[in-house]
């Protein structure tokens, strides 16, 4: 798969359809695969933290989640075809496995969120095979029992929704102990499936203003969102200073 290097992070140049197809084929392959969806904030974190950058680059699929990453790919003159958000991919793959029998486990969010998300998903896809769920608040000593629960459920697909960079690190550190075929780090997606957080209406997304919608709905994100202009300036001035001599 072709990639674009943005501040050292090798983002896949895929369309939404390619990405969903790729996840579906990974589900049917042996071995375990990780899927991360970096936005501007996550790429900026990786720019400042080489170990985290390596974790992102170890993924089997890395999609451009956020209009900032799409613009950045244009600035470095190697554009991605479109934005491919984690939530959209999650929806796409759920549609594909809605009747296939593949087993899905929902991990993350506040207590009760995964249950609510499962309830809503079952209303839309009554045959969707949700085999387990677990909230995302746990002590380090609970990790082994969480892994055991996921493995015992027989899950093929695992949504890990702990926010970045926790979810990417969690997947990376535990990948070898998990028997799932695909593990996706997809932030606040369970909140959206649960209906506790609203996704921006399509028109805002099309205009590249989802960040503004989220800021209006969740003003506490202001300081986190300061990463956006910082990311823009960093890509403009350092976008071509590739890490580790990569092109
Ligand atoms: N979360 C979690 N465990 C934690 C911290 C956060 O499960 O220790 C969840 C939180 O409840 C939320 C998600 O992780 O559902 C992070 O959502 P956020 O909107 O910050 O992520 P984004 O989509 O912006 O990456």
Could you walk me through the main structural features you see in this protein, from its secondary elements to its overall organization?
The protein is α/β, with parallel strands linked by helices and 247 residues long. Helix content is 47%, strand content 14%. The chain contains 13 helices and eight strands. A six-stranded parallel sheet has the order 4-3-8-7-5-6, sandwiched between helices. Strand 5 (103-108), helix 6 and strand 6 (129-134) form a beta-alpha-beta unit. It is globular and about 50 Å long. Uridine-5'-diphosphate binds next to helix 9. Uridine-5'-diphosphate (UDP) is lined by residues 108-110, 136-137, 161-164, 187-188, 190-191.
Please supply descriptive tags for the structure shown above.
247 residues, alpha/beta, six-stranded parallel beta sheet, two-stranded antiparallel sheet, globular, binds uridine-5'-diphosphate
Quick structural summary:
Helix content is 47%, strand content 14%. It has 247 residues and is of the alpha/beta class.
The low-confidence runs, each spanning 5 or more residues with pLDDT under 50, are none
DSSP, total strands: 8
User: H/E order of the elements?
Assistant: EEHEHHEHHEHEHEHEHHHHH
Helix residue percentage: 40-55%
What is the overall shape?
Answer: globular
Task: Strand order, main sheet: write it out.
Answer: 4-3-8-7-5-6
Contiguous helical run count = 13
Indicate the structural class: alpha/beta
Return the average pLDDT rounded to an integer: 93
Strand content: 5-15%
The radius of gyration is 17 Å
Largest sheet: 6 strands, parallel
Distance between the termini: 14 Å
Small molecules held by this entry = uridine-5'-diphosphate
């Amino acid at each position: 798969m072709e990639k674009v290097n943005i501040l050292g992070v090798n983002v896949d140049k895929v369309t939404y359809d390619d990405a969903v197809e790729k996840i579906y084929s990974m589900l049917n392959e042996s071995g375990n695969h990780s899927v991360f969806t970096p936005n501007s904030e996550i790429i900026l974190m990786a720019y400042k933290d080489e170990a985290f950058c390596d974790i992102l680059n170890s993924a089997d699929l890395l999609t451009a989640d956020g209009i900032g990453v799409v613009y950045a790919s244009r600035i470095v003159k190697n554009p991605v075809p479109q934005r491919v958000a984690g939530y959209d991919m999650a929806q796409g793959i759920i549609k594909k496995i809605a009747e296939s029998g593949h087993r899905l486990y929902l991990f993350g969010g506040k207590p009760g969120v995964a249950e609510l998300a499962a309830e809503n998903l079952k209303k839309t896809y009554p045959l969707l095979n949700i085999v387990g769920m677990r909230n995302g608040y746990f002590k380090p000593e609970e990790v082994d029992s969480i892994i055991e629960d996921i493995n015992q459920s027989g899950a093929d697909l695992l949504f890990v929704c702990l926010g970045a960079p926790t979810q990417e690190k969690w997947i990376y550190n535990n990948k070898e102990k998990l028997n799932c075929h695909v593990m996706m780090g997809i932030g606040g997606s369970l909140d959206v499936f649960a209906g506790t957080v609203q996704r921006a209406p399509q028109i805002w997304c099309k205009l590249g203003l989802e960040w503004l919608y989220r800021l209006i709905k969740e003003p506490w994100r202001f300081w986190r969102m300061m990463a956006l202009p910082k990311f823009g300036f960093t890509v403009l001035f350092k976008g071509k200073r590739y890490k580790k001599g990569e092109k």
